[in-house]
Amino acid sequence: MSNRVLSSLAVVAALTAAPALAADYTFKVAHTNAADEVQDKGLQKMRELLEEKTDGAATLEIYPGGQLGDEAQLIEGVMLGSLDMSMTSNSLLSNYIEDFRVFDMPFLFPSISALGEKVDANWDLMEDSANGSGFQLLGVFSSGIRHLMTSQPVETIDDVKGLKIRTMQNPVHVEAWRAYGANPTPMAYSELYGALQSGVVDGAEAASTGYDGMKFYEVAPDFALVGWLNMTAPVVMQKAAYDALPENIQTALMEAGQEAARWERQYVEDQEQPLIDSFKAEGVTITRPDVEPFRKASLPLYESELTTPGQKKLFEALTAK
C-alpha cells in the first residue's frame, strides 16, 4: 500500500476519532425528580429538539434528582443567574410568580389534555406574568394528577381527619388539606421518603409518576385516587439572561420548550392508568374515595386564595368556555 494511501487513511481515522465540537450554548437545567421520570424525559426531549433546531449550537445539561438543590434553591439560582434553567413544581414557582397560583387550585382541570389546551391558548398572558416577575417561560410540563399516599387505607374524606399529610411549601396546598381535615405538614420533596419511613408524616399528596419513580410505595403502601390537583411543572430561565441571547437561540429555546411540553404532557397522560395498574404488583392497596366532598371543601379557596387582579384575570382566561 502506498504512503499516500496510508496517509489518507490516517487522516480519515483521525477525523473519525475526533470528538464532536462543543455546543456554543450549554444551558444547565436542574430539577428534583428522579432521572428518567416523566419530567426528566421531557427535558431530554427538549434537549433533542434544541440541538436539532440549532444544528448542535445549543444544548441542555440536565441535573436530575435534586443534585443542585431543592426546588426553592433552584428557582433562586435562576433568579441570581447561577443556574440557567429550572423545572420545578408550579406550587413552588407560584411563590415567585404570584399569578401562577391559579394553577395550584384544586380540581381546576378535568384532565391533562384539557390543561394543555388552556395553556396553549393563553400562552401570551402566562408569559407576561412570568416576565413581570423576572422570568422567561419556556414550557409547561405536567407533573401528573395528584392523589394521596398513606400508611393506612383512605376510603372517605373522614379517613383523612387528623392525618399528618405532607404538602408542598405552598399556601394553597396547606389550606386545601386543612379543609379536607388533615394536619398539613409542608416539607421539601427530598425529605419525604425518610419522613414517611420514620412516621414523621402519615402520608402525602402525590402523583402516580412520583409514587412510582421514588418508590414511595415501599413506605406508604396505600394509594387513594382523589385527583385533587392537576399539577404543572414550568420550565423557566432568568428573563435578563434570555434577552441577552441571539434571536435564533431565543426562538429555538421557545420552540423546543413548548414542543417538548406538549410531548411530555401527552406522555404523562398515557402513563397514568398503566402506572396505577402496576402498583398492585408492588402490594399497594388502591382505594377510590368519593371526590365530591373534597371538591366541595375546596370551593372557598377560590375566593380566599385568588386575590390579585393578575390572578383573577388568568383564572378567568383559563376557565372561559
Describe this structure in words.
By secondary structure, the protein is α/β, with parallel strands linked by helices. It contains 13 helices and 9 strands. The chain has helices spanning 3-17, 38-53, 71-80, 90-93, 112-121, 123-132, 171-179, 192-198, 208-213, 239-243, 247-278, 292-305, 309-319; strands at residues 25-30, 58-63, 85-87, 135-150, 164-167, 183-186, 203-207, 222-238, 285-287. Strands 1, 2, 3, 4, 5, 6, 7, 8 and 9 form a 9-stranded mixed β-sheet that branches. The longest helix has 32 residues, at 247-278. Its main location: periplasm.
The number of strands is 9
Mean pLDDT: 92
Give the overall form: globular
Biggest sheet character: 9 strands, mixed
Describe the structure in brief.
The chain has 13 helices and nine strands.
Supply the key terms:
321 residues; alpha/beta; 9-stranded mixed beta sheet; 20% strand; globular; disordered N terminus; periplasm; TRAP_DctP
Q: What is the element layout, followed by pairings?
A:
Elements: H1 3-17, E1 25-30, H2 38-53, E2 58-63, H3 71-80, E3 85-87, H4 90-93, H5 112-121, H6 123-132, E4 135-150, E5 164-167, H7 171-179, E6 183-186, H8 192-198, E7 203-207, H9 208-213, E8 222-238, H10 239-243, H11 247-278, E9 285-287, H12 292-305, H13 309-319
Helix pairs in contact: 2-11, 7-12
